[in-house]
Amino acid sequence: MSAKAIRPRELKRLEKELQDIRALSKDSSVSADSVEGDLTHWKGHLKGPDATPYSGGKFVINIEIPADYPYNPPKMKFDTKIWHPNISSQTGAICLDVLGKEWSPALTIRTALLSIQALLSAPEPDDPQDAEVAEMYKHSRELFNQTAKYWTETFASENKSSTEEKVQKLVEMGFTAEQAKASLEKHGWDETLALNSLLEGM
Fold first, then answer.
1. Contact 144, 133 (CB under 8 A)
2. What distance in Å separates the CA atoms of residue 181 and residue 126, rounded to the nearest whole number?
3. Predicted confidence (pLDDT) per residue in 57-113, tens digit
4. Backbone angles phi, psi at 39, to 5 degrees
5. CATH classification of 160-200, choosing from 1.10.10, 1.20.1300, 1.10.8, 1.10.3470?
6. Neighbour tally for 67: CB within 10 Å
7. DSSP-derived 3-state class of residue 153
8. Which CATH class is domain 8-130?
9. Reduced to 3 states, what is the DSSP secondary structure of residue 102?
10. For the whole prediction, is pTM greater than 0.85?
11. Rg for the chain (alpha carbons), in Å?
């Protein structure tokens, strides 16, 4: 959809929002910008909150803005893989009231990103987007924290893991070095597939 589909008044608001979020991004834990100048398609960036398994991660959010924005919410989903009860581990879809029935034209793209960041600090497992993750969060919190931290280090960290680091991460989760290496080699050093295989074998 081109920006031409949006009425001039709403287009002016989007331009103002983009200007504001750019001005604030330097000192903020959230930021966003349009993709190739398309005001209906943005990419958001947020830092994982401290004291959570997402700390140290940088997450990318895909933002699609409908023609009737701000009267209807933007469509947001995680481009970066994340392990969280309210975010699909497969598609990145987000279950959050302010992106649905609680949306108000008074809200902005920036406030929506801040709400998503707050969700990382305070998951809502009783209203899940990903039932498997929610079950782990409710019944095996330590394993949830380990898995969420592992996914953050694997997918949201600026420093991609070496093979030795990949083995070490699995060892820290309670597997032997032999088990970790064998599973990683079997799955082409894909850490997620290796971890899932090891967890299924427990």
1. yes
2. 36
3. 999 999 999 999 999 999 999 999 999 999 999 999 999 999 999 999 999 999 999
4. -70, -10
5. 1.10.8
6. 15
7. helix
8. alpha beta
9. coil
10. no
11. 19
Which residues have a catalytic role annotated?
95
Cis peptide upstream of residue 70 (ω within 30 degrees of 0): yes
AA identity, residue 175:
F
Name the one residue in this structure whose structure tokens are 């998503």. Answer: 116
In three-state secondary structure terms, 121 is helix
Q: Are the C-beta atoms of residues 33 and 43 closer than 8 Å to each other?
A: yes
Question: Hunting for tokens 């331009």 — which residue is that?
Answer: 15
**Two structure tokens written together for 55:** 């700390």
173's tokens = 């989760």
The helices-and-strands tally (H runs, E runs) of the chain is 7, 4
Domain ranges of the chain: 8-130, 160-200
3-state secondary structure 50-100: CCCCCCCCEEEEEEECCCCCCCCCCEEEECCCCCECCECCCCCEECCHHHC
